[in-house]
Amino acid sequence: MTYNLIRYGVKDASIAENRALVAKVFEALDETQPQSVRYLVLELENGEFVHLVGYDKDSSALTELDAFKAFGASHADRRSTPLARSPAKIVGNYHMLANTDEAVPA
């Protein structure tokens, strides 16, 4: 599974909208239940959002959802900081992410 960490700030006036659009993505994931996707979104107190995305082979099971396309459509307008994307590896996981036995040795 490939993991990416995505982090960005959101303008104060757009935080509720961003949160609602993220919620719609999770609703769509609950409906379609793709087995090839892992997805976690955190909202920090400072208006930043952090997404941890895991997928097998390609991310289309997530990115092709109508709700995800709606989330991305005006994303640049909602952001207060540039989007930062980094490949990530799971080093440890305790009851946070399901089915991730992929710890990388230190």
Question: What does this protein structure show overall?
Answer:
This protein is α+β, with helices and mostly antiparallel strands and 106 residues long. It is built from four helices and four strands; from the N terminus they run βαββαααβ. It has helices at 15-32, 60-63, 66-73, 75-78; strands at 2-9, 37-43, 48-55, 84-88. The protein has a four-stranded antiparallel beta sheet, with no helix packed on it. The longest helix has 18 residues, at 15-32. The protein is globular. The two termini are 19 Å apart. The model has no long low-confidence stretch (mean pLDDT 90).
- Helical amount: 25-40%
Low-confidence segments, given as residue ranges, are none
Q: Return the average pLDDT rounded to an integer.
A: 90
Derived structural class = alpha+beta
Rg over CA atoms: 14 Å
Reported for the largest beta sheet, the result is: 4 strands, antiparallel
Organism: Mesorhizobium montanum
Protein name: ABM domain-containing protein
Task: Give a topology summary.
Layout (H helix, E strand, L loop, with lengths): L1 E8 L5 H18 L4 E7 L4 E8 L4 H4 L2 H8 L1 H4 L5 E5 L18
Antiparallel strand pairs: 1-3, 1-4, 2-3
Helix pairs in contact: 1-3
Protein name: ABM domain-containing protein
Organism: Mesorhizobium montanum
